[in-house]
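Model: You mentioned two targets. I'll fold them one after the other.
Researcher: Yes, keep them separate.
Model: Target one:
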Amino acid sequence: MIPDNNKALDLLNCYVKEQSNLDHNLIVGYGMLGIAKYLEKDETEQNYWFVAGVLHDIDIEEYGDCIEKHCIIGEEILRKEGLSKNLIDDIKSHNDVLNIERNSEIRHALWAVDALSGIIRAYVLMRPDKDVKKAELKSIKKKIKDKSFAQNVSREQIKSCEENLKMTLDDFVDSVLKEVKENISFN
């Protein structure tokens, strides 16, 4: 089963309680939707990409510091909820430790958007108004270049969009940011 967007959001809220974790999953979900739209995926695929992004870290509050369990616990949760094997496999591919081949656009996108979400969230939280709607492409790109900002975020992972998705960094960041700004506000 591939849940619709509302069901995916319900699942997320059922398993993820901490606001920062919810924010991360929402950024990735809406970011994936933005990339799917840019790549001109049909509505069914756009839903699939959104769901993969929103649920990619559904186990974030379960695996603790054991990254080896990340996505394995998530797989158990998503199977229990009746999600399709293909969707689960696509989600699992973003955890490098599992060594799952990224052999499709959605897998490459999920990996890159996951990293970009760290830059976007850190940028918004440093703003006095915490307003993502005021975030601009040039500001996010500047933070990507600044290696002292959000140091644990892999810039190479973000820039993989150029080779793996055939998108410029500007188009990639803009597509993610546009959808995030339209759908999310931070508290």
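Model: Target two:
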Amino acid sequence: MSLESSRYFIEHINLDVDKEYITLHLPIDEYQIDEEKIFTYFKESKGSRYWFKSKDNTYNVIGINYIDSIWRDRFVPKAVEDSKAALFNKIQQEALSKNLKSKLSLFGGTLFDDKSSTDEWNDFKMVEFHLPEWQFDLKNQELFLTRPIKGLVLEELIEEISGVLAEIETEELYERDKPVVKSKRDIFPNEWKKLVQEAVENLDQDFKKVVLARQKLILFESRAKRLYLIRRLKDEMDTYTIYYEKGNSTFVSKTPEKLFSIKDSELTTNAIAGSIQRLDDQVQNEAHKDFLLNDDKNLFEHKVVRDSIISDIAPFSQGLNYKKIPQLLENRYIYHLYTPIQAMLKEDADEFSILKQIHPTPAVGGLPKEKASEYIKEREYGTRGLYAAPLGIIHEDIECEFAVGLRSMLIAAKSATLFAGCGIVKGSDPEEEFMETEVKFTPMLNVLEATTNELYKSSDSSDI
């Protein structure tokens, strides 16, 4: 950021007293800053920070200090849209440079469903999106600073911004202590297997699939250091990175799955369903890939997910494009069947109505969607909260990107609860599905450096 050029722009700004906030938008490409330095500098803001990075790096956004938020106890698209419009209408937006690329955004999403929340999810609302005081766009090397207009002296902000950026740049990074694992245990493992068997017996022509999730509880000797997690998340590639602090809770996800994005009136989404483990042995991996591409169970599971997504977005679309034969999506630990889908949206389409319609996809809920959702709500152990829920970035216009909060965990105090699920169809075997979910715990175990053969204890309900 050029201090003199920013002063020039500041001098020509007239504060709008009818607005509540002013947002200054400026380049920060002269500073060498990254995610870990930002979180280190703003360590006192714990509980009011997020990091959202899309797997194709369309977004790499960090927000610090939630200065305002919109939230609802029920997800009514029109009400959320009105709240978003009202919040943006309170902001006077000013660019301090020409040719800036990014746009002011809010971060947030919804819980998986409206099931009465258990205590561990009390920090999160059913629907909420946050406007941060400091918003760093690391892809475009730009900054948004939002402050209340009342009592503001604009000229002082330039020196403050320059000082903060200089201090972030010179933050010393040192080795972080990894959390010491006290114990690991599966929550209700035997009961979960019985639930899978019951679901298989209940499936028929009118109830084709249900996704059942389970949890793994990890206890630490002391509180997990958030800066350690940030460093570990930086090392993970080819997935979304979602790091979301709210109050005393932190939700972390390394999901491979985009729910949808909208840009220039084009909606992009994908069907991801059907999976198999990726190993270190290349010969075995080739066999796994060949099996996945030809296995009837996985192909059926993928087809019902793809067809459901297409059906959900069709009312908002005036043209669809997708391939009927799935391809492979290769992640660090898992291979997935994958079909990209594009749709040109109608003029009256809005992101929240689409979100309400498309979530949950059969990849995380089941089919039919309503029946599967009720089955999950009534029978599944615990509350999903943000697991498998939509989280992402929204703008003042319709442009947005949402991911699905898979490969995730909730951290609070000295514990981490890991979540994983799998699609149950006719022919599913409880033991095989249990092992599939075990593989899906791997990304979060890797973030914690808590391997599955370390201090592992499987327990039934009496041990929890």
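Researcher: Noted. Anything on target two?
Model: The first strand starts at residue 21 and ends at 27.
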